[in-house]
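Notes from hallway chat w/ T.B., transcribed later so I don't forget. T.B. wanted the structure written out for a chain they're using in a teaching module, and asked if we could keep both sequence and structure tokens in one place. Agreed to drop them here.
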Amino acid sequence: MILKRQIIFLLCLFTFQSGFGSETQLSGTKLIDKYLSSKAYAKADSALQRQIAELKSKQLTDSLIDYIYYLGKVKLKLNNAEAATKAVTRFSDEIEASIRSPRSLRQLYLELGSFYNLIGNPEKALESNIKVL
């Protein structure tokens, strides 16, 4: 009986520690998603800017492409569709200028299309998706 209680206690302790530790280990877009889902838009923006700066410093252009949609989503939540569009356009133009791979360029246009769908602009989304072809 005592052994059973000890095992249950250890299982509970392990489960609690695992759950607690996993929250602090979030990074990348998962961390931004967490902040967005909890409506902590300023924290999402801070994490986003930090991650973008790190990727730029490491010259990981292909990885920056994944942040186009997130930049737009965060700016949309903090400001409006016009400010989000300006930020996304500026950011994607900067990335596009340094892309060498057709595959990366394709991914950039897909991310832009997703952003335009987010803000309710299906015409621009279609234009971006046509460029993918």
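Follow-up for T.B.: The chain has one domain: 2-132. Might be a good example for the class.
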